[in-house]
Amino acid sequence: MDPEKFSMRPAALKRPAGRRAAQRSFQGIPGVEAAGKRLFVSHYANDIPGEGPGNYAVLLVSGDGGRSWKEILHVLPPDPESRVYDPVLWRDPEGRLWLFWAQCRSEKLWDCFDGRAGVWAAVCRAPGAASLRWSAPRRLADGVMMNKPEVLKDGSWALPVALWSNYPEKLTKAQKPFARPNLLVTKDRGRTFTLIPGPNIAGRTFDEHVIVQKLDGSLRVLARTKYGIGESFSRDGGKTWSPSRDSGLGGPGSRFALRRLRSGKLLLVNHQSPHLLPGEQPPANQMREKLTVWLSDDDGKSWYGRLLLDARQLVSYPDFTEGDDGFIYEVHDRERLVRGQILLSRFTEKDVASGELVTPGSFMPLTVSSLNERHEV
Q1: Domain boundaries, the chain
Q2: What is the DSSP letter of 353?
Q3: Are 118 and 139 within 8 A, CB to CB?
Q4: Tens-place pLDDT, residues 156-180
Q5: What are φ and ψ of residue 168, in 5° steps?
Q6: CA–CA distance, 212 with 222 (Å, rounded to integer)
Q7: 122-136, 221-235, 275-289, 327-341: least confidently modelled range
Q8: CATH class of 4-369
Q9: How many other C-beta atoms are found inside a 10 Å radius of the C-beta of residue 57?
Q10: How far apart are alpha carbons 64 and 67 in whole angstroms?
């Protein structure tokens, strides 16, 4: 069956009704954004255990710094043989709140990609208003987007949209040249978009890439790989890319978060990797554990801080944002099929540099949502 049928039909944005966390069997893959005194967290879920048909996205809001939460929106797939997944939250330079998600055909559990998929978006122009209004869902491109856009020096936005190469048998001949971590660029604040093919990073898997513009104007793309995180650079706006290489940032082959802060520093949230002696290879079964934050003052050449957020196993998929209150807010998930915990931490650059929480008001993981617990809807 043509995946176009499933990628072109819009999902439904609904107020929560009859789908509570207490009834779910799966949830994870969170995102976070701040707007004034409000915090927003997204994730996706299922009433059956796993990724596949019926997956839907959830949006929650907090008005008290993350201590209490309310589900306010569900993004529901258009039919039983499709899924809505990988939601991403982003507040653009104009203050609008974007909710991105992917959707594709999915006939059975762990059937995660149909060869085309599609990145969709809805926009809330006034995320601080008493009543939140969303635009109609709009399809932006083929593929999947797992991290926030990068605002470039010329004012354009670059969205990290990937067409996965993990399933070559599902790709058409025309799609295969674009099966890589791409840049979807808009120069008119989201009205129109142009796809710029990204680098062919060796060993990538599910891509989940990040775009960072370096201080000299060049572009750096970092992607999830089997060995950790690979990277490539472009000095001509994405026309050509350097040969890919290991970034040296490590990790178990899982989503990471890396972005420039308002201070100009880079902040990285990733899993700690074992220290390797010369000639040693990283373990093939490295766990998703020890989620840690680092800072860089020199555009990513070196890192310091090592603030350990969550030492437990099966913690993954971090995202972060900066609030207007001076705090950095980070989310990740834990044990998606058993606990389904969505967890929130709050800290400052000073905390990261110190390697411990030294700022009054900082905290390490509080539960936003979890399976088998009731939350206000």
Answers
A1: 4-369
A2: H
A3: yes
A4: 999 999 999 999 999 999 999 999 9
A5: -60, -25
A6: 8
A7: 275-289
A8: mainly beta
A9: 29
A10: 6
